[in-house]
Structures are given as C-alpha cells and as structure tokens.
Amino acid sequence: MRPQPGDQLVRDGDETRTPLTPADIVADAKPTVAWAMQPNGTVVRNASRFNKLVVVRVGAGDDQVFANTIICTHDGCDVTEWLGDEHMLSCPCHYSKFDPKDGGRVISGPAPRALPSLPLTVAEGRLVVARLFTSHVGFESQ
Amino acid sequence: MKSKLVAFLGVIAAQVVATAQPPAPRPAVLQNYPAVSADLLKAPPDADWPMVRRTYDGWGYSPLQQITPANVARLQPVWSMSTGMTSGHQAPPIVHGGVMFVATPNDQVLAIDARNGSLLWRYRRTPPEDAIVLHRTSRGLALLGDKVYFAAAEAVLVALDVRTGREVWTAKVAENRNGYYMSLAPLVADGKVLVGTSGGELGVRGFIAAFDANTGKELWRTYTVPAPGEPGSETWPKGDQWKTGGGSIWVTANYDPQANLAYWGTGNGGPWMGDQRPGDNLYTSSTLAIDAATGAIKGYHQYHWNDSWDWDEVSPPILVDYQRNGRTVKGLIDVARDGYLWFLERSNGPIKYVEGKPYVNQTVFKSLDPKTGRPEVDPEHKPGTNKKATFCPSLWGGKNWPPIAFSPKTRMIYIPANDNLCETMTGDRTSYRAGERFVGATYTFSVVPGADHVGEVQAWNVDTGMRVWTHKYMNSPNWGPMLATGGGLVFTGGTNDRKFHAFDAATGKLLWEFPTSSGVIGQPSSFAVDGKQYIAVQSGWGVDSAGMQAQLNSVFPGQYPEVPEGGAVWVFAVK
Description:
The structure holds 2 protein chains of 2 kinds. Chain A is mainly β. Chain A is 0% helix and 29% strand.
C-alpha cells in the first residue's frame, strides 16, 4: 500500500523507527531517504521501492520540508542528488532536475512528467503525510 | 442453488462457444518460415540479417549492393510502424525468411512481415511495477530453429515460438531485486543461449551464463569477477570487494565458431572509485574470451586497470584479420570507451596486444607498455575518494555502447564517436545495500574550451591503422550504431535532429538524410525480400542519449533542446 494520510515518516534504515520531525531534515544537505510508517509505528511501508521517499528542506520553517517519491519518472532510477544552491532534486542516471517546492515539476532533462510529491503536514511535532501522492509513482510506459 | 449456478455457468459457456471467433489463419510468411540452423548463423544468406550484427564477427555489414552512392538520393520510406513504447529503441530489425523481429523497451517483441509492415504477432511481458531497470532498452534478439530468444529487462531469459509469439520456456537469470537487469541481445552459440546482466551501478557481480536452447536449463555460469582463490583473485583486495565488484555485461559478444570462443566486453568496477578496491581488478573493463562449451575463461585483455572513470568496456571487439608490419594478424579490434582504439590478436585462447592509439581527446594515459598495452595512468587525472580530478573523455567515453561497423571492401571500420567531452569527478564512501545505487561519486560534465563539435563519424583503415575520414556533427552528440553495406555506403542515426544518415563509405561524403519520428539510436540492418534491398532501423531516442543531450543543454542552455521520444520501425528502399 502506498503512503496514507496520517502516516508518519521514518528514516531509511532506522531500526528504532523514530518518527521524523521537521528539525531532522537539514537544509542544504543530501536528501533524507525515508519511508512512510503507520501512525502506530507497527508497519513501515517499505515492501516496494516505489514507496521510498526523498525528503528535503528548502527554507527555515516547518512548511519548507517537502517529500517526493525517489523513483525518477524517466527510467526509474533513485533520485538521490540534491543541488543545494538551486534547491533542486537531480537524478544521477540521466540528469533530470525536479523542483520539490513546485510539486516536483521538471526543470530540465528527459523526465516526461513531474516527480510525484507526497504532501506533508506537521502534527504533534512530527512530519505526517497529509494526502496521497499527487500522481502515480513510476516511470513511463508502465 | 448449486444446480441453478451450474445451469447459469452452462449458459455462459454456451455463449462463449457461440461467440468465440475461430483463430485467424496463420499468415503464409509464418507458415513458410524456414527454421534457422546453426550453419545458417555461421554463414547467413545475403538477404538475411539473422543476429544483432548480422554475422558472428560483429562487422555490422550487409553484402547487399543494390543501394549505392549513385542511387541513395532516391532512398524513401517504404513503411513504418509505431512500437507504442517510449525510451531508447536500440535493437536492430532482425530479418530471416521475410519475417522481421524487433525488440523494444518495456519487454516487447514484435514480429512483422518485412515486405509490407503487417504485424504478425506481438509479445509483451509485465514485469513487477518496481522492477529495477535503470536502462529501459533492449539491444536485440537471437534466432535458432523455430525460436526467438529475448532477454527481458527484469533478468528473465525468454524463448518464444517463432510462429505464434508464445512463450516456450522462460529462465530466471538473476535476482532483479539485487540490481541485476538485462539490456543485451542473447547470443546463440554452440547450441546454447548466452547472456549476461547489467547492474554495474548497483553492486552486482558480473557474469555470463549459458542456457540450453531447447529447454532453458542453465548449463554454466562464469563470473567476471573471480572469487578468492580463483585465477585473477590476486588482483582484488582481501576483503569482500569482489562480491560487489561490477564487471557487468551490457552488450552481446562476438563469436569465433572455429575456436568456439565468445568475446565479451565487461563493465566498470564497483563502486566507481578504484582506490576503494586496490588492484587491477580483473576482469573489469576487459575483453574475455569465453569457451562456449564450458564457460572457461580462455583469454583476456584488460584495457585499463583499476577503473576509476566509469569506463565500462561494454563493446566486444570485432573479429577481423588485418595487416601489420608485413604479416596478417588474426585480429580483434575494439574501439573502447577509454578513448583508445585497440588492435589485438586472437588465438585459441590468449589475447595478445598489438597496438593502441587514442581516437578522441584523452588526458589519462601517459603511455602504453609496448608489449602488453598496459597504460601508464596520469594520477592527476584519476579521481579517488575525496580526490577531485578532471579527465577526458567523459564517463560516457569516446564511444559508448553503439557498435562500430567494418566493410571488407573499404577495409575501414566506422566509429560513432563523441569527442571533446570531459568529466570532473570526486569520490566518496558508499555502502552496499542490495538493489540500491552503489557508485560513490559526484561528477559534473564539461566540454573542452573552444571545441567546435562533439559528435563524429570516424573511418579508420584497419591495415594501416590510420584515420581516413571524419564527419563532424556540429550541433549534436553521436549515439548512432553503424551499418556498412556492399553497395559502398554507411548508414547511421545518432543525432539529435532525428535524422538517419547515409555516407559514402570510401570518402565520408554525406549523401542522404531523412528526419524520422524520433532520434535514431537503433542498430540499422539491411535485408532483401524478393530480390529487393531494404534498409531498416528503429527510431526512438532515450536513455543515455537523452542524458547527454540534457547535460549538453545545461552547458549550452537552449542549444540542445529535448528530442521527442516514441519508438517506430522504419524501412527504406530506392524507388
């Protein structure tokens, strides 16, 4: 199941399943790779790589943290690079560039559509999924 | 209740029977399809293009000679057909018995009446939605008997019935979740189907495996990175680096049937920074001579040791005998990603170095050992962990995967080159997690200051070892596989203007161009039906050609706009 409204986020590889807070997402650092987790913390939705997220900060406030799928809409590579001076996500395979502030809009490169974003909110100090992915996760022709 | 349900289902069944259509009669071209023998593959009829490079020696040469420099200006499309897919269309139209077989991205195989473009059957697989396929392409198919062999992207080998397109058998080649995927065409040799896998950026351990052509049973598997204690393991550190050492297989081998040896090109080491796996790292960035009967490694040549530039030597060398110093060398010629043109000598096993020289701007090799060809590397141009270095050619190499062609008439090889590109790279530490990127480097792309072009077609005489002509594409990189014909022509696409080009093979004069539906990065082929010569190619820009176009556009904003994607098969003839 894809991330659901109300889910919390947990850092990839964090076996303690500590929910991420806005303060955990550092500006101008590499993107935080994360998964959605059911609110009770029992299930991390990591059965499919299509649920993996990149979380970035583009400014000082809690509302300046954005989450997108890590799956590039071009060929499905992991979008792992962060262009800190531009505040853009970049795919290391074929160099598509996405704007996390603008719904994952394609800025340049061969990606045919926006990188689906996962709208977030903050509840009880934690990052929480506000709505479903803005569009379907995956790459072309699937 | 039960009886009512049975009666209800009976009514449905009766309706299904009543409305079922009789199967369509099988087209005559399929009914009459002549099975492909092992002997045919060793010496194909002139009219056929039965494997990716037409012949086992990898020449990409058709002896057909109706289309010539004198009439190529009248070359026109005869038919075209949309594949329904995006991404990079790199497979050649394979033709035998008047039937064309085409592989496309996204696990599709098409059988088409080569004469008129009628679709005969369509095969599609549905891989898991989260399959790891970082290069959505297929580089082709193989034929034997009444089967078509297809390497599905999620690392599953498929044998199809040539007359129906239905699966005869499938064989899992490797675990896709661990980053193994396939982009190559299978090689049919010695009654077997040989494949390897991609995944050098995902911490795979490369291998070549052979499957029984009739049953799909795996017969042998040979790793390109040796385990401790195996020959070559002394070139790896004593840790576990060999388990994730790379050496992936991206492109189909060429094959010497007499020696029963298949010549495979191997990819970069993993992760990218050589200082994280000290040693030569056999058999990465090499050509391997593999015994098709047993899988034994009978010989090798490593083009550069301890790769730190992402220079996969993916292309296999072509098999061609050439003159050197008054003698005929039973040769291998490889145009390598490291920017060097390599002349080698083959045998029943060991591979011997003959000559190496740069064919594009190359800043890394200071010299080559005159006996072994081992390069002396300039450390200033070798990136490392936390060590930035700039090197040329770029990580895409002087030539990437697109194959060269050789014409026995002109004695020239034709190279799709990209000159004047460089990379600045800095390594960092990375840790392995199955199925995840395992590279450990950041990098930026650049163009040599003052350079006036990138893409080229180069022609070199194999007997003199000298360049004869160069065609420069002033506004485009070149990602075009080459075709040479007995009519004295060279066909290739590769440019960002969607054009398919024909050159005079002897002089390099551009004689004909046609703008297709997308950029042409497919391997062209030539065939004849009813005595008439055709030229065929897939158009369909994508994968690395799109990546390079995006990078060039970042260096020269607005000058390298997006190339439209969407695949189609195009067939041309002189009218």
